[in-house]
Amino acid sequence: MSDKNEIMEETNSIIEEELIQSPGRTALKNFLGKKTALTGMIIFILIFSLCFILPIFYPLDVNFADSSQQHIRPGLGLMKVPRELRNNAKIIDVGNSFGAGVDLNNNVYIWGNPTNERLLSIPENMGNITMLSVGLDHILALNDRGNVFTWGNDRLRLAPVPPEVQRANIVYIEAGNQISIAVDNTGEIHVWGNRNFVDVRPELFEGQVQRVLLMDATAFVISYDRNLYALSNRSIQIITDIPRQIQGRVVDVAATNRDGLALLTDGTVVTWGVGDHGVDNIPQEIQGRVRSISAGAWHFSASLDDGSVVSWGRNNYRQTNTPNLSNIISVHSGYYQNYAIDSEGNVHTWGLTGYLMGTDHYGRNVFRRTLEGGKISLTIGAIGVIIASFIGIIIGGISGYFLGKVDLVLMRFAEIVNAIPFLPLAIVLSYAIGHSLEEHMRLILIMLIWGCLSWSFLARLTRANILVEREKDFVTAAKAMGVKERVIIFKHILPNILPVILVQILLSLAVIMLFEASLSFLGFGINEPRPSWGNMLQGLRSTDIRFHWWRWVFPALTLSFAVISISMIGDALRDAIDPKSNDR
After folding, report:
1. How far apart are the first and last CA of the chain?
2. Which tens digit of pLDDT belongs to each residue from 334-364?
3. Distance CA 539, CA 181 (A)
4. Which residues pair with 302 in a beta bridge?
């Protein structure tokens, strides 16, 4: 008897609950009670927020490329100086994606993202190191006895050190892009490696060289009489047109990709070249106070006589956000990094710390391109689904309500459209007219193709639900009151079947995102340099995915998480609004 009473009480509580709660609130409660639904919502909201909000604060220049940053591994440790060197530094030099330093005990350290494993094979017993120079993928070291050591990539005879260099008393070294230079105590230049990029001929200077600065395609030479010369195998007249008024007064020289900077004997600095990103806007307060200079790809840094440091130029990686420093004795700039050593051997850093998801074959930030690609992929999917939903609801609603010949014609038309394969048609249209369209028109083309071909299933679903609803009493009452049929379809019947339609819309969004990715991967969708999740995977066809795994893992994972989260939300919503799926 007690069991019967408990069953009656449970039944009464359920009935009372249903009387109090609306069907919408009941469905919402069922939806939020599912862990899969909440998980899918959290993942999708996170992806949506990252793709649409972060690019506002960190806009992407789709045309940006930097060969010096190619295939850098994911991580934020490009300036992570080893603990043993951090408070005990004597010398530091910087490469494109790694740094090298020597402590007060003459131990050598490598950090960041070395471009070649041989860079980690540091020679032993080099003695008291007085100078260190980092090239593209090799390093030179000089000790107090004038001996030169080299390690790293040994192509083009970069290693070993030539015998004539070993015999000479070297006082200055410089490592560049596949080339090495040493200057001996008589002012003679010794060159080995690849001379195709920079034409450095020792016979031009006849023992008058004091120091050399190597760039990718240019070399600057400072002579004993403080004149500055520029040598190049390429036609880079802008940076090689050295101002005449500085000749005879040059103490040091630094250069960005397209601008030069000279430190003169009176502590002033002079710049020449293109003036990209404001590098020619020298802070006036530093004139006459500069002690040393250095340069990155698009910025300059100068240490002053009071021990402070000033940086100016491009600030895309915060490389000119100089911290408040004092007692600085030397500053060293890489492409986008800066290191300063104070009088106590402490190392201070600012600039590019690394790339969260690495870089691709053009040196572009994979994380930023993944966000921008997600915005494009989600936009295409959303607008394409809206177009398909608009067509499918109208055709399905009219067909299901009027029946007869109207239903016959519309459903046969839907079957014809459903028989047209989306992917082959999109490929043919993209190949035929896509190359003649601008990028935004290609986006519109993809959305229109999907919208015009994917509405048939939604139309049949709408028709089936309207067939059920049209026989109910509220429809008969509306007809008796003289309500127009279009109002009955779209104002009275459609709201009742909208939850079912919404589920299908969500599932369609996941499908169109996969189709867009497929099109772009095959080269018929969004084209470079504009990113999408699909064309970011396209580079896998021309690179070894084992060594550059981050180029495809992160876009693929993001696309997978987005599609799976949308499917999880759709499935949970379908279960929540379907009474048959509820336990009770």
Report:
1. 23
2. 899 999 999 999 999 999 999 999 999 889 9
3. 37
4. 293, 310
